[in-house]
Design a protein that fits this description.
Shape: globular
Structural class: alpha+beta
Strand content: 25-35%
Number of strands: 5
Largest sheet: 3 strands, antiparallel
Helix content: 10-25%
Amino acid sequence: MDINLHTLNLAVFDLSNKQIFREETKYFDLENSDEYLNSLIEKIESMISQLGIPREKYLAVGISIPGLVDAKQGLSHT
């Protein structure tokens, strides 16, 4: 998952590093709101549904977000 200021990119790779899913959503403007979080969750749920891969088969999630991140407090200072 690559979260940018104005776009969202979702991708899934198999264990041989082959990309099996990619979706770019433009005009997905980053903001600190419940609406944004709910939209992000909906996008992820839709991707999982489209792929038909059971949740327990996913091994990891990578998240890229712009700016400075305080991992201990879970905050982005951008």
